[in-house]
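Researcher: I've been going back and forth with a colleague about how Flavin reductase family protein might be arranged in three dimensions. Neither of us has a model we trust, so I'd like an independent prediction. The organism is Shinella pollutisoli, in case that matters for your notes. Sequence below.
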Amino acid sequence: MEPLPLSKAFTLLEPGPVVLVTTHDGRKANIMTITWTMVRGFSAEFAMTTGPWNHSYEALCRSKECVLAIPAADMLDTAVGIGTCSGRDTDKFAKFGLTPLPAQHVRAPLIAECLANIECRVVDVIEPYSIVLLEGVAAYFDDARTEKRMLHAVGDGTFVVDGRRIDRREMMRSKLPDGV
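Model: Here is an independent structure prediction for Flavin reductase family protein. You can compare it with whatever you and your colleague have in mind.
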C-alpha cells in the first residue's frame, strides 16, 4: 500500500447518496445540494451536514422542516448545478426546469423529477458540528422512473453511481431486526 494524505482520507468513506434538500422560508421555496447524509438506524431518521454557508440553512432552522429529494444518476449535472449557485439570487426550480409538487406534511415542496422524496422535520441542529438531525414523516418513490441508480459524491469533484444490486437478504434474514 502507498501512503495517502490524511486530508484525502474522507474520500474513502463516501457518505449516503447525493440529495437535493428543499426548504420554504415562508415566501419562496429553494433547493440545496447536500452530499453528506446518513441514515440513523433502521427507521426514518437521518442526518446531514450543512450550515450558514448555505442560503437554505436559515429557512431550514426556522421552519424546522424540509424535503430530501433523491435524484437519480441522470440528474448529476442538475445536482451539481444546484450546488454551485445560490438561492439568494436564483430561482433554482426555474433555472433547472424542476417541478415543485406540494408535500402533505411540510411546506417545502417535493421535486417531481427525482427518484424519491422524503418529507422531514428537523429534530435537532448540532451547531458545533453542523449536523442536522431529521425525522421522516412521509416518503415517496417513483417506481415508473427508468433510471433508478443513485449518485454518491466522493468529495473531490467526482461521483460514484450505484451499480447492480446484489441480494443477500436470505443470508442476513436471521441477523436483521424485524420489519427490515
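Researcher: What would you highlight for our discussion?
Model: I'd start with this: The longest strand covers residues 116-126. After that, consider the following. Residues 56-63 form the longest helix (8 residues).
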